[in-house]
Amino acid sequence: MKSRIAVLCALTAALAACSEPASFEEFVRADMAENGVYEFVLDLSDSLSTYDISLFTKVDAPVMGRIRTSSSLGLEIEWKEAGTITPALSETVYLPYGDKGGASLYRSGVKPSSSGSWTVSARPIDPPTGLRGIGIICKRNGTR
After folding, report:
1. Total-model pTM
2. Looking at CB atoms within 10 Å, which of 42, 46, 123, 144 has the fewest?
3. CA-closest candidate to residue 139, choices 58, 39, 21
4. Which helix (H) or strand (E) holds 2?
5. What SS3 class is residue 17?
6. CB-based contacts of 124: which residues, under 8 Å, 6+ apart?
7. CA 82 to CA 138: how far, in whole Å?
8. Per-residue pLDDT tens listing for the chain (144 residues)
9. Phi-psi region of 102 (alpha: psi -120 to 50; beta: other; left: phi over 0)
10. Taking the mean position of all CA atoms in its chain, how far away is CA 36?
């Protein structure tokens, strides 16, 4: 009897460990951005959750200098629902970069108009020399 309970406990723990992660992170290198556009496909299918979206970048310092701490990169952002051509949202945002690096919160508490797969495209405006790429972090806030 004790061995059955132990096996049941082990299976329950294994199933709990297999739950979907609460965040997704992706970095697209500059040489992989098709026509200078960085695309990220986000799974926003949990209709009971909201999502926090952060962006980050890596820019190499010039050979003979440093990146200013207060530098920013303009990004034209488009959101498209899976299977659509027309963007649901288009906007320009500015992503800080510099000596400290790190992710910057782009949007908090996102609840899409329809759950499912969404594509977020980012096109840098006048990208600096040394741009290595752009990344995204999508964190699910919810009950799962």
Report:
1. 0.78
2. 144
3. 21
4. helix 2-17
5. helix
6. 36, 38, 73, 74, 75, 131, 134
7. 17
8. 555 554 444 444 444 444 556 889 999 999 999 999 999 999 999 999 999 999 999 888 765 556 555 688 999 999 999 989 999 999 999 998 865 567 899 999 999 999 999 999 999 999 988 899 999 999 999 755
9. left
10. 17
